[in-house]
Amino acid sequence: MVNGGITAVSFVTYSIPLLLLTGFLIIHIDIKAYGEKEMYKEQKVSRFLGWTNIVLGFAMFIVSIFLK
């Protein structure tokens, strides 16, 4: 959005990369660490949260493209 010649940055602009980055980090770091410690319930929850972050990030990205 342009407001008086100044470009406004919305919450979505920050949340999309954050969701994608945290999802990627959860999947690649936490799941591996929980597997080594044989913490299988935590590993399953981390896998769910990581993929949820990635899916939400991509969904918000697609919606933001169509709303511009």
UniProtKB/TrEMBL annotation:
The keyword Membrane applies. This is CLC_0170 family protein. The chain crosses the membrane at residues 6-27, 48-67. InterPro entries: CLC_0170-like. Keywords: Membrane, Transmembrane, Transmembrane helix.
